[in-house]
Design goal:
Number of helices: 11
Bound molecules: S-adenosylmethionine
Oligomer: single chain
Largest sheet: 8 strands, mixed
Radius of gyration: 24 Å
Number of strands: 17
Number of domains: 2
Mean pLDDT: 84
Strand order of the largest sheet: 4-5-3-6-10-9-7-8
Shape: elongated
């Protein structure tokens, strides 16, 4: 799903204009040492309108010169993007890390902090996708003004002249007929400024493996962000074998947070596929921050990056990892290939010993005595499987819940509410999520001895 900020409009702001999307490729940079594949494909996505504040609408002449240490400690607005449906869970995470939440939108929230704080958010956040640190905002009516405003930012203080740069943007400006132009202009302004100040321009291209600058241009209002994540945070780095229809890591984490499972009680995941839910559950149970698995973030490529402070953060996070627990995490699938993939992915995440794997039909999944959650993500006919066959599967899940799972809380994550009706149990809660652009529900069932059969199919939400 494209990152969408969904910012709240100020009172005078206009409704968002139609979405314009383009993927742009410009020729590879000519500088020696440029990677062969480094073509600057600059993605243009529209985000909903931003709030304009008169106070900050000054032209950027030049950003104040600050040494790297001070730049690190300067506070700014931070936008954390996420998939639709996730902001309530992201909000809880941000608050529990001690950050304020200034506003929450359809696919993002706003907090504030320093670049050091952004580093911490990247390490700990489980459900967010990108941590964007606001560098500058200004008015720009047209591409020339955009270039001139961007040229006023001291990019040479943030980006290495021999580094690698990627520009991403979201544009909705009436003077821009071809949004590729705005992208190229932005990238040119940045590298030209660095060349002028340092005598050399950084390479640029579509890979988010180096410094990433994100531009949001709505009408005549521009916001320029340092994308401190670089690669989106759902790329945890453990998915070595994706299989078909895997759940995004950030979505799986949000699903587990929605069940309020925190490592107490068992977590049983039949139909585990590539193991995302079980792996995210193990990370939560052991208090392993997802950022510990990754070795590359956007902030690492900024001049302000203080490696020793990052290492301290990592060290502190490692001391808080929990060891073994009396509760079990069980992942099963009918496909041996899926279980093999899940095991390998779990090994890459460092949690293979925390999860018990088995190849079996979901209905044969062993449920440990005691309580916990049993969470299934069956196919729902959008990408895999045939609907008629799936009706039988959903009916079977209802029987499995009733016969084998008393004492547990049951969850089904599905994008097909018609199929969900075949479960034949009344869902206590229906939590909306999005898997890519498919609207989904996490259905929650209380399962006690002789669970009540729904008198009628549960109503649509
Ligand atoms: C939508 S995928 C699950 C994706 C998973 N959440 C992930 O992140 O990779 C559904 C899985 O159900 C498994 N499956 C289908 N029928 C099954 C059955 N009768 N018993 C157990 N697993 C089954 C498939 O092999 C597939 O791996």
């Amino acid at each position: 799903m494209p990152a969408e900020r969904g910012r709240k409009l100020g009172p005078a702001a206009k409704p968002p204009a139609p979405v314009e999307k383009a993927n742009v490729k410009v020729p590879p940079p000519s500088a020696a040492g440029a990677p062969e594949k480094a073509k600057a494909a600059l993605t243009v996505k529209l985000r909903p309108a931003v709030e304009k504040t008169g106070a900050t609408a000054e032209r950027v002449k030049s950003t104040p010169k600050l040494p790297p240490g001070e730049k690190r400690m300067k506070k700014s607005r931070i936008i954390i993007t996420c998939a639709k449906g996730i902001p309530p869970f992201l909000r809880e995470e941000v608050l529990s890390l001690g950050f304020p939440v200034a506003s929450q939108a359809v696919a993002s929230l706003e907090t504030e902090g320093t670049l050091e704080d952004a580093m911490r958010l990247n390490l700990f956040i489980r459900t967010g996708q990108r941590v964007l640190f606001l560098l500058e905002e200004f008015r720009a009516q047209n591409p020339d003004e955009l270039y001139s405003q961007l040229s006023g930012i001291a990019w040479e203080d943030y980006i290495y002249e021999d580094g690698y740069l990627c520009v991403t943007s979201s544009v909705d400006n009436p003077t821009i007929k071809d949004s590729r132009f705005a992208n190229v202009k932005s990238k040119d302004a940045i590298v030209d400024r660095i060349k002028k100040k340092r005598g050399r321009r950084p390479d640029s291209g579509p890979e988010r493996t180096g410094a990433v600058i994100d531009l949001y241009w709505k009408e005549d209002w521009c916001q320029v962000y340092l994308d401190t994540s670089g690669e989106p945070l759902y790329r945890r780095g453990y998915r070595k074998i994706p299989l078909k229809a895997p759940m995004q890591e950030t979505l799986a984490a949000a699903v587990i947070l929605a069940t309020s499972w925190d490592g107490h009680g068992n977590f049983v995941n039949p139909m585990c596929g590539s193991g995302t839910l079980a792996i995210e559950a193990a990370l939560i149970a052991q208090n392993i921050p997802p950022g510990l698995i990754r070795s590359n973030f956007g902030f690492m490529h900024l001049k302000s990056f203080d490696e020793s402070s990052w290492k301290n953060l990592i060290k502190m996070a490692r001391t808080r990892i929990r060891g073994s627990s009396p509760h079990k995490i069980i992942a099963t699938d009918i496909s041996p290939e899926a279980v093999r993939a899940a095991q390998q992915n779990a090994a890459a995440a460092g949690v293979e010993r925390t999860i018990e794997f088995a190849v079996c039909d979901y209905s044969e999944t062993p449920l440990p005595a005691g309580q916990g959650m049993v969470v299934l993500n069956p196919e729902y006919g959008e990408r895999l499987g045939r609907l008629k066959e799936l009706e039988g599967t959903y009916r079977g899940i209802g029987d499995f819940f009733k016969k084998k799972c008393p004492g547990y809380r049951g969850y089904i994550f599905t994008g097909n509410l018609e199929l969900a009706k075949k479960v034949g149990l009344k869902a206590k809660r229906r939590i909306p999520f999005f898997n890519s652009n498919i609207e989904c529900r996490l259905l929650e069932y209380d399962l006690y001895e002789g669970s009540r059969k729904a008198a009628a199919p549960p109503p649509e939400q």
